[in-house]
Amino acid sequence: MDLRLIIGRLFLVIGALLIMAAYLAPATIRSQLFGTNINLAWGIVLLVCGGVFSFSARKSS
């Protein structure tokens, strides 16, 4: 099994968990910096990275 596939799946799971945490957390607990929800931003970044890793692993095999 390609290591990129494992890392991609890990990033996808963690990204999905961060996005769920961004929407389920009460507004008083959400970490905000300059009006941006940090969990949502990093969840999206991790989903994109996980997709790139998974796509490159599938494409090479």
Low-confidence stretches: none
Task: Give the terminus-to-terminus CA distance.
Answer: 10 Å
Q: What is the arithmetic mean of pLDDT?
A: 88
Topology, number of strands: 2
Radius of gyration: 14 Å
Number of helices: 2
In percent, how much strand structure appears in the residues? 5-15%
Approximately how much helix is present in the residues? over 70%
The overall number of domains is 1
Which word captures the global form?
Answer: elongated
Q: Name the structural class.
A: mainly alpha
Q: What's the helix-strand series?
A: HEEH
Largest sheet: 2 strands, antiparallel
- Across the major sheet, the strand order is 1-2
Report on the structure:
The structure is a single chain. With 61 residues, this protein is mainly α. The chain is built from two helices and two strands, in the order H-E-E-H. The protein has helices at 3-24, 38-60; strands spanning 32-33, 36-37. The protein has a two-stranded antiparallel sheet. Strand 1 (32-33) and strand 2 (36-37) form a beta hairpin. Helix 1 (3-24) packs antiparallel against helix 2. The protein starts with a helix and ends with a helix. The mean pLDDT is 88.
